[in-house]
Amino acid sequence: MFYKILADAVVIIHFLWIIFIIFGVFWGTRNKTVKIIHISALAFAVIIQVSGWYCPLTHLEVWLRAKHDPALSYTGSFIAYYAEKIVYINLPRDLIIMLTIFFAGLNIFLYLHKIKK
């Protein structure tokens, strides 16, 4: 059960990380440290999508689920279930790559627009 809870926690952290990648520009324009982390996260997201790699959080979650006893009847929390559906959305790979590049470009545009003001 411990590994199941950890795996669910990783999914929620993964979900929050994705939210940060998409909307972090709004916090990053006001905080230089957040801006550096956010731009690095955007670059990493583009690299792993274009390269066809998996996020390290995905590997961690899969490993934790493999350590979990599959015979348990409890299937997980409500929040983890729906967060997992969002994190591991079932879309064509090309569309995910295009969306990743779009959001990265949009965020960079917003950073540059904020700098010009």
Q: In short, what is this structure?
A:
With 117 residues, the protein is an all-alpha fold.
Please provide a written account of the structure:
The chain is an all-alpha fold and 117 residues long. Helices cover 79% and strands 0% of the residues. Helix 1 packs antiparallel against helix 4, helix 1 crosses helix 5 and helix 3 packs antiparallel against helix 6. The longest helix is centred in the C-terminal third of the chain and has 24 residues. It is globular, with a radius of gyration of 16 Å. The protein starts with a helix and ends with a helix.
Strand content: under 5%
Mean pLDDT: 83
Which segments are poorly predicted (pLDDT under 50) over 5 or more consecutive residues?
none
Largest sheet: none
Listing every helix as H and every strand as E from the N terminus to the C terminus, the arrangement reads HHHHHH
Structural class: mainly alpha
Give the helix tally: 6
Q: Helical percent range? A: over 70%
Which word captures the global form?
globular
Gyration radius (Cα, Å) is: 16 Å
Terminal-residue CA separation: 52 Å
According to DSSP, the number of beta strands is 0
